[in-house]
Amino acid sequence: MSMYNYLLRLFRKKPLGALEEEIDPSMKFLIVGLGNIGNKYAGTRHNIGFEVIDYLAHDKEVKLELNNLGETALIKHKGKQVYLLKPNTYMNLSGKSLRYWMQKLKIPQENVLVIVDDIHLPFSKIRLKTKGKDAGHNGLKDIQEKLGTQSYARLKFGIGNDFKSGQQVKYVLGTWNKKEVEELGFSIPKAAEIALSFVAIGAKYTMDQFN
Prior knowledge:
Elements: H1 3-10, E1 28-33, H2 48-59, E2 65-67, E3 70-77, E4 80-87, H3 94-105, E5 112-118, E6 126-129, H4 138-147, E7 153-158, H5 168-172, H6 178-201, H7 203-210
Parallel strand pairs: 1-4, 1-5, 5-7
Antiparallel strand pairs: 2-3, 3-4, 6-7
Helix pairs in contact: 2-6, 3-4, 6-7
């Protein structure tokens, strides 16, 4: 008997890859930070989701690796598996990447958290919501279309709206000013803390504590 066949019998004839599926889905989470790939967009307000994911990976001492439809990493928190994702589909197709990884990892929708910039919140104001409209955000719009629902958790990171009429695109794709960069040193870790709280105690208790 070959070693492969022996292992199949040992694990009741399940393929080795299926062992991952035996993990209780309620113990698996997906945290998705939205942004645009490429040096052109690095450090821009629209990429704050990427910044929070980068912080989480650094804090947990893991490396994001280039994978299908995004950069991914696996961390552990409070006994749960947490997959980090930075889509590489560009903002307008964020839902394509999110849906792919939800299905591949068999992660339930209630265990998905999307981190996104929000011009409707003051700079560095952070708010967790479990549903809502896309509010004109192209990344959220695509996610809503791909999932077929507005009911998914999103962590909104305020970037303010200090721009004149017709200048919104230039503003969100612009880089942070010096004062904002200093504040990000506090607010990005706070956003990461809230994301991990979502994993540990759920949306309701996290919103009660932080919103």
